[in-house]
Amino acid sequence: MTLHEAMEKVLVDAGRPLKSSELAEQIKTLDLYRKRDGSPLQQDQVRARARKYPHLFAQAAGAIALASWRDWEQVVPAEPSPLSDAPVPRPAAGTDQSPIKSPGLAAALLEPSAFRSAGTIDLEVPVRPGLYAIRVRDRDALPEPFKGHSELRGHDLLYIGVAGQSLNRRLLGQELRAQGHGTLFRSLGALLGYRPRAGSLVDKGNTKNYQFAPDDSQAIIEWINANLLVNWVEFSGAYRVEETALIKTHLPLLNLQGNPAAIPELSALRAECVRIANVPTG
Questions:
Q1: Looking at the whole model, is its pTM more than 0.85?
Q2: Contact assessment for residue 228 and residue 133, using Cβ atoms and an 8 Å cutoff
Q3: Sign of CA dihedral 104, 106, 109, 112
């Protein structure tokens, strides 16, 4: 477990902001992280790691919190009195200052019973604009560290996206069937260990939209069909506003843009794929 993963776990379990000294002490007590040189973990190192990952942590009033907690500065108390049995206020994890604009739309999109297997929807996805959400059937299907991140967040939601013109084209074709440049498809391929062909983007106009070899793409599609659950709602209003609010509120595991809890390991994997695809061969 990395230091920032250990910090996330301790904060999630505590349910409240902690002073850097408390955070360091809890990590040592639970033996969640050990420095390579064997020296004791110091609170300065905890503070430095929080500064390095501002999308995961926030600091104020001498305390560290998860960046996803709302109004957490209001619940950084002085040390509680040992004579008091009053519960410590708990910030609302997974919420953001940008509320969902249409609660009914969000409820319909994320209704658990509405999700269907990704392998059964090819004839059902409409040629209409809308929002879509994707979950993993079983967290054990995710490789580490993504399984661990999912467990820390307490949900199986992987991705929320928008189709400005056609759910059939964007969700089904690009994201699930590799017909074009699906953001989620590229992320899934990278975290599952697949890489694009070396030099495949050399001399191309877009140097970031890497693709996988046909056999690898088919393997990714088979993994998708076996492990992912999908739901969508048709919607033609201010879909970008809704998408942004949903991502900030629910913190899907594989959304990067606009996600205050974007996973740095995913960004690193995607950057590696881009590098490989842009390295000249021969």
A1: no
A2: no
A3: negative
